[in-house]
Amino acid sequence: MADSVQRPLADPKSMAKRLRAVLAERNVEVSHSEALEVVARQFGLGDWNVLAAQLDDGAGIRFTETCPVLRIFDEDKAKEFYVEFLGFNLDWEHRFGDNFPLYAQVSRAGLTLHLSGHHGDGTPGSGVFVRMQGVRQFQAELIAKNYRHMKPGLEGAPWGLVTSVTDPFNNRIHFCEAEAE
């Protein structure tokens, strides 16, 4: 497929949704279909239909995002760690009713994590491996926060430069940037 479009890192529909949100913050309203057309042009194509056809792998199957579910036991500690220390945004919270456990989404720079207080969601002590860019800057940012429970270092590994953190519930997240070749 020499003439096919290179697969984007993000789902084009999600890109269009984010584009609309950014423009709305600037008081510029565009329809979802207009945003899809803009995304298609960003890939050098004439319209959305051409982009959608070229992205289809023929089987109709595409994985667009991974959201690890990490088990939490204390909402305040989870927010302190993920929002205040790691710098994630708290996107939303959900409860099935009063006095039910929290299920929440946090995100930062393209990484989305789900945090759950529900029994059976995730296993305490799980590990998540995250490929990223800017691991040195991220590690320096974390150290500068002087978080009393964690001072993550940098470690060279055969697969890249890694900084690792462990949340208050013993879940480990390894942030890795591949070494330049």
UniProtKB/TrEMBL annotation:
Residues 60-178 form the VOC domain. Keywords: Antibiotic resistance. It comes from Methyloligella halotolerans. Pfam families: Glyoxalase_7, Glyoxalase_8. Belongs to the bleomycin resistance protein family. InterPro entries: Bleomycin-R, Glyas_Bleomycin-R_OHBP_Dase, Glyoxalase_8, VOC_core. The keyword Calcium does not apply. This is Bleomycin resistance protein. GO terms for biological process: response to antibiotic.
